[in-house]
Design a protein that fits this description.
This protein is α+β, with helices and mostly antiparallel strands and 135 residues long. Helix content is 19%, strand content 45%. It has two helices and ten strands; from the N terminus they run H-E-E-E-E-E-E-H-E-E-E-E. The strands form two sheets. A five-stranded mixed sheet has the order 4-1-7-8-9. A hairpin with a 4-residue loop joins strand 8 and strand 9.
Length: 135
């Protein structure tokens, strides 16, 4: 009887965790802060969703929302290019492994006038430098 009760508690715990992750919405915002009137092209996607290419003029932002998956493997990645660059640069806009605690409800990103990528730590309220990978 004890084993059945323990199993029931375990099942209830798993269901509650699943429901919590299904309801949780993550918002991603990406801002163009290149300055000097520079626009940037941005293409973001996940394994399941391609958000298409958007052109962000200087000081413009784009955003989208999604629910994380049960397995904690949600990943959205983006390619970005601006100015006279012929190469694209990529970064992970949301990686469940990295961002589960860093941005619980909103992941804010900006490309600065130096062409650097900054992400906001929601818990600390600080901006942190991240690397852009040339693709």
């Amino acid at each position: 009887m004890e084993k059945i009760r323990n199993f029931g508690i375990l099942v209830l715990f798993v269901v509650l965790q699943f429901c919590q992750s299904c309801e949780a919405k993550i918002h991603v915002q990406i801002a163009n802060r290149l300055g000097d009137g520079q626009s940037m092209r941005l293409h973001c996607q996940s394994k399941d969703d391609d958000l298409g290419v958007v052109v962000l003029e200087n000081e413009q932002e784009t955003e989208w929302s999604f629910g994380t998956n049960f397995f904690g493997t949600t990943l959205f990645y983006c390619d970005v290019r601006w100015g006279n660059l012929t190469s694209w640069y990529s970064f992970d806009a949301y990686s469940a492994d990295r961002d589960y605690s860093r941005c619980k409800t909103i992941c804010r990103w900006m490309i600065s006038h130096e062409g650097m990528l900054f992400g906001q730590n929601e818990d600390l309220g600080t901006w942190e430098l991240y690397s852009l990978t040339r693709t």
